[in-house]
């Protein structure tokens, strides 16, 4: 499993790859990227930034003040070493690339990734989810009679969510290969 600090590092390098940002803007963009379920606190962000500064992956380029705050805002920028490290991280295709904690961040920066690597990551993620799906479906069949209706409904919802993500990944893989979507499009409400 990827450590949270590694995931934050990848995300920060990816965002700074797009251009310099101050801590508040980084946190805001990271929270949008991570989604509603995983909010990043300043207590997690600033230690990661300090570690990245010490490793020469990023640098402080300027401080700015705003009319609403007398406190200066430090602007961070990725260094050449940081760019190289980001590119190296984006070419990794092992299990950490498709784990729940890391996949979303990597996917957000797929435009910086070679097609073959994108395909390997997507296929790895799909394979991992298919394994999870088989396990959850087996558990659902075994426990259906033993659990109350709400617990069974929650399990069914989990199965449907994983099935939906597997279909989505299959469509992405097919699109990467230049073919038509693997699943039929949903009918329009006017059909």
UniProtKB/TrEMBL annotation:
Transmembrane segments: none annotated. Residues 119-160 form a coiled coil. InterPro entries: Metal_resp_DNA-bind_regulator, Tscrpt_reg_PadR_N, WH-like_DNA-bd_sf, WH_DNA-bd_sf. The keyword Transcription does not apply. Residues 12-87 form the Transcription regulator PadR N-terminal domain. The keyword ATP-binding does not apply. Keywords: Coiled coil. This is PadR family transcriptional regulator. It comes from Nocardioides zhouii.
